[in-house]
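Help!! Second protein's tokens look totally different from the first
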Amino acid sequence: MIKIPKKVSDRLKKEMGQFQKVLLTAKDRDVNESDTVTIVTDMLASIFGFDKYTEITSEQAIRGTFCDLAIKLDGKIKFLIEVKAIGLALKETHLRQAVGYGANNGIPWVVLTNGLDWQIYKIRFEKPISYDSVCSIGFAEISSRSQEDLERVFLLCKEGIEKAAIEGYHDHVQNVNRFVVGAIVQSDPVVTIIRRELKKIGEGVTVTTEEIQAILSAEVLKRDIIQGELAEEAAARVRKAQKKQVRKKAMRTAGGAASHAESESESEE
């Protein structure tokens, strides 16, 4: 749960509802991209708390690219915002465009929006460039009475950026999701526990870890959780974490043994 300062919470509750009406009216009028940028700029100031004249910059300030807006705090661009017309559905091509702007400028956080839908991404500067979907906000559906909705909006607020809320949220999303849970369930330590518990259920039951893993992958877990790029990344993350724990345990054991040996040596003296 993200702790939102009261003055920010009050601002969100006041402004979100007002802009929902503005956005829906704009959609009915099918306003163009330029007018949508104007609305988004007003949202960044009124809802998200940025100074319209010093912290929200236009495309001319973004090193030769054509991204619509950027948020700049303490002289540094914190994230880029690519805006599409409010009546235009956000597509993969728009996302690639926004990610390209961020990658070319070395800015990891990008937002793609048409005013109603806001999609937040973090770029991974790898070869090739990739990105993580952090979260999305649908302004037509969110409620000021929902703590979860307020928390997601807070991620992009000035106060949230200053508290690095989005980084913490991103870490949580990367480590607590169905792919990671699926990988943990299939890992050797958990399979060993399942095997032990199965033996308790029926005396003389013989079951192998391979048999349990086959049941998990074929009958228990959904295919999309254990197959594909995200599943492979989650499995690699789990293996890395478990190996790290094994190394730590080995170091503690070695350290304890060394301390014990040293104590015995001193006693003999």
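Here's the second one for comparison:
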Amino acid sequence: MKRLRVLWAGLAWLAAANALSVDGPAGANPGFSASEARLIHSLEIGKLGVPPADASNRVADHPEAAALGRQLFFDPRLSRNGQVSCASCHQPAFGFSDPAAQSRGMGKTARNSMTLLGAAWQNWYFWDGSKDSLWAQALAPIESASEHGLDRMSAVRMLAEHYPAAYESVFGTLPDLRDGARFPPRASPLGDAAARRAWRRMAPADRVSVTRAFANLGKSIAAWERTLVLAPSRFDRYANALARKDTASMRATLSADEEAGLRLFIGRANCIHCHNGPLFSNGEFHATGVRFSTGAEDAGRTRSVLTVRKDEFNCLGPYSDAQPEACAALRFLPPSWPGKPGAFKVPTLRNVSRTAPYMRTGEMASLRAVLEHYNAGSRIARARDRTEIVALHLISRELDQIVAFLGTLDTEVSERPSPVRAVAHR
């Protein structure tokens, strides 16, 4: 009887092995179920489509605005010392992120710069979601003392001095800044004490005209950032082959370890819970137990739900081009964060091997370190009260396989032409 049970067990294993390798040698067909195959196909970059319309930015898809925005993005004159540009912390060679653990402009910041890849498809910006549009996000570093360190008036003067024709062809007339009595050299509601005093002395109408030009600067940068598109990666080619049941192409595209990493990613490792969709991000906020920044605690989403509501550049603000009904994400934002403290935005995993270091403070130098953190889960005693993750109990080889899979998401970035759309000057 014992021999019979062994025989039946052997036959069952052989049948399972044949089912997995029906189209080739063992391991050639990973044997994904129909639901797993559909899930994998949902991650393909082709499912992303064009960026959704941004009602708050009427020049979001205007080619001349994008052309101006590209110049501004790489121009270090948009900083107090003339040496810091947007590209200083969003470097194309590093997936439009920063290889420094904590980004440095005029000074050292508290966080690592998130990649801009896929940003046009998001609802919230920065690690804590304190901005609700790509153009509002572009403005914040310019007035930050530790980043560009520029005051609002100086930013608009830079536009007037170096880009007047390009600006006015899209937005209309710039404020006439030659009247020094009305428009001081430096002024800002967020600058140093002298800049704030100068701002308060300005007439309300002049403050509005300068702020509108400043907002338009951000809208131009956002228009260019929306043109950044990702080519299909090896994973995307694999997903497409899986949908076609083309096992020969699948074998030629991913290695056995990369396939195993994919299976873990959508299965036991549960990475797919937060890293889903074509950008491998749900765009939401989760507490993952990473340490808080040195000094004051970084409250993350807990605080930002209040910050974004008060922002003068939000979707419902006076410088937005949207009608209130188009601002659903902000209108229905709860008045307080219902989750754990220390919740931060889930970054895209597209080109993730190029965007080290990881986490909001850049404290993890490698993808393996990130996975070891998640694998430990709730065993991290100091993070138990502020983490959603649980121990995965994966072995070392399985962690390496997930890292191998993540490497298949690397691809090239290009700029798509902006559709030609007429823009009414305001």
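Reply: Different proteins will give different token patterns, so don't panic. Strands lie at 228-230, 285-287, 343-345, 413-415.
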